[in-house]
Amino acid sequence: MRVLLFLRNYYRIMQSRLIVKNFGPIEFVDLDLRNVNVFIGPQASGKSALAKLYTIFKAPRKFIKNTNLTIDNNIIVNKPYLLDVLEEYNIASFIKPETEIEFDSLLHSLVYKDGTLTYVPKLLRKIQNIENLKKDFTNNKGLILEEIEILCIDYLILYNKALSILNYSDGQTSVDYNALMTLNEEQCIEIIRVINDIEFHLSTNAALYIPSERNFINIVKNASLNLLLNNVPIPRHILSFGAEIEKAAINEINLNFLHENLIYKNINGEDRIFTASDSSIKLTEAASGIQSVVPILIPLLSRPDIPY
After folding, report:
1. Residue 258 pLDDT more than 80?
2. What pTM, to 2 d.p., does this model score?
3. Closest of 100, 101, 95 to residue 25, by C-alpha
C-alpha cells in the first residue's frame, strides 16, 4: 500500500488557491491554481493583476525581509510594506479599504485583510517538527519517517533527492516504507538540510514575473543609463525583469524549436541571432516572436538549481 501511495503521487499536481475580493477591477475570484494556469477574459478585467498577485504570494519571502522567522507565531506585514511591493508591479492603486486576498498552498498561506498581511510558513513548521523529533532519533524514528514520507509525496524534488540520499539505484522509481526504515541519523540530517534548501528557494526565488512588455527590454537595454538619468518612468517590475536578464550568465541558446539551425548568442554584450549560414542579425532586428521568446529563456535557463 505504501509503495502504491508513492507511485500514485509521483506526478502529483501542485495545487494552490487564490481568493481575491475588491482589488482593482476584480470584485471576486476564487481560483484553484495548478502547475499551468491560463487566465482568459476581457481587456482590463484583471488578468495581469491576478498573475502579479500570484507571483508575489507564491514566493513572499522575496519581499518579507525577516530573516529570523518566528515559526511558532504568524508573521504580520503592515499595509505600507505590502504597498511598496504592489507598487513595483504597478498595482498598488488597486488596494481598497475593503480589499481581501487569501493565498493557500502546501508551502505557506497568506491572508490580507483590514490593512495587514498575515504570513504562515507551513513547510517551515513541518521542518521544525522533524528537527525536534530528531533530538531523540532512536525513539522518534517512526514519526520522522512518516513526516518525510508525506513531504516526499508533496514535493517531487525532495522525493528524487531522498532516493539519492538513501542510496537507491538510478533505475529505482519508488520508495516503500520498509526500505525507509533503513534511514539513519546522518541521512536524516541530510534530508532535513535538503528540505530547508527547497523551502528557501520555493519561498524566495521560485516565482518570476515575465512582463508582456518584455520586448521593450531588448530595445532599451543599451540606453538604460540615459533613461534613468532623464527620469523616464519605467515601471519597477520591468526594471526588475531587465535586471534578471542582465545578471544571467547565458551566452548562447539553441533555438531549433523555433527554426532549424537558429541560435541566440551574446557576443561582447550584444544580443545576436545566428542562422545556418553563420550570418547574424541583432536581436532587435529579429522577428517579434524571437524577440519575445529569448527574454523568457535567458532568466529561466540561468536558474537551473531552483526546484520549480
Report:
1. yes
2. 0.70
3. 95
